[in-house]
Amino acid sequence: MAESGGSAPFIRIENVTKKFGTFAAVDNVSLDIGKGELFALLGGSGCGKTTLLRMLAGFEMPSAGRIFIDGQDMAGIAPYDRPVNMMFQSYALFPHMSVEKNVGYGLKHERNMTAGDRRDRVKQMLDLVKLTELAGRKPHQLSGGQRQRVALARALARQPKLLLLDEPLGALDKKLREHTQFEIMNIQDRTGITFVVVTHDQEEAMTLASRIAVMDRGVIRQVGTPTSIYEYPASKFVAGFIGSINMFEGKVTAATKGEVEADVPELGGKVLLASDAVAEKGAAITVAVRPEKIAISRARPKGGNAFPGTVKDLGYFGKDSLYRVKMASGTVVSVNSVNAIRVREDQRVAQWEDKVWLSFEPSSALLLTQ
Ligand SMILES: Nc1ncnc2c1ncn2[C@@H]1O[C@H](COP(=O)(O)OP(=O)(O)OP(=O)(O)O)[C@@H](O)[C@H]1O
Ligand SMILES: [Mg+2]
Q1: pLDDT along the chain (370 residues), means of 10
Q2: Structural domain includes residue 360
Q3: What three-state secondary structure class fits 317?
Q4: Cα(95) to centroid(ligand 1), Å
Q5: Are residues 150 and 257 in the same domain?
Q6: Closest ligand 1 atom, CA of 18?
Q7: What predicted TM-score, i.e. pTM, was given to this entire model?
């Protein structure tokens, strides 16, 4: 849904730093977000996500750098004068007000709306979040998920061009979270409003967002689509932060265009990688392979990138199984296998202490240098 190439970004964050005393909570961040995107800021606790969001909303001023929203420099512009609304994690609903009053609260200050306009807008918002029937209830008479939808309706009621959501689903249980994620995506799709969502949950970011920025200690480590972040992480940090991954130290033994061969003692031999990364013979590298990209078999598979080991642990999760396989070097490799065929326990590919072979495609292994 991002605006097609060439047009100016809807949000431009230009070399923005925010210092609290001498500590840089956000450190020289530059980022463009397109109109109509559902963009996620993802990172661990304290990495600067909320601080960045608060600067977009105007609750904090950058110590350095500039922020443009819809082409306008935000320097000196108060939160209320920005085309932005923010939904806080706590929802901050008014307990004594009905759902309807909560949703309409922000419209009281809209000067060019009549009372009729306001009523219509509230109706429309309640309809959007499917709360029309609960309009007269107070927040304490609602479930967590319903309260979350009231907060969303209230944030959307002023029809901001940009909606900022700080851990919007943090208070919900897993099932409700999943359901609400799709509801948010739906609403975003129907309204076309640009959403920036803060989360520390990588699955949530992957599910929700058109693009993700991975933050770490005040800086953005990588920006990309969920697929590019997961399949082509640019660093060990991002590879390890998103999903799980096996990482092995190696040394390049041969490198031609698009193909690298490395000695990886932890696996017990040479690994072939399909990689465009520039690698020189003798260079120290990290070979990274996601657990689901490794095949496990009793017989030695044909072809390269096959290494023997012993099953030390086995977890059965219904749709898939997790194996931990110890290599001769002592390194333990995680393998995730989809249980595509229904079999009894004693018919499994491997059991505890079984000797197995692990193998993977050259194109499934990542070459990381940082
Ligand atoms: N007003 C403040 N004064 C001093 N330090 C602050 C202030 N606000 C935030 N910080 C610090 O800045 C860093 C980033 O905080 P921020 O709230 O942006 O993190 P976050 O990524 O949102 O984390 P979380 O996932 O825990 O909400 C933290 O180390 C925090 O302690
Ligand atoms: Mg936060």
Answers
A1: 60 98 97 96 94 96 97 94 85 90 88 90 89 94 87 87 88 76 85 92 91 97 96 94 94 91 96 85 95 96 94 94 97 95 86 94 94
A2: yes
A3: coil
A4: 27
A5: no
A6: 12
A7: 0.87
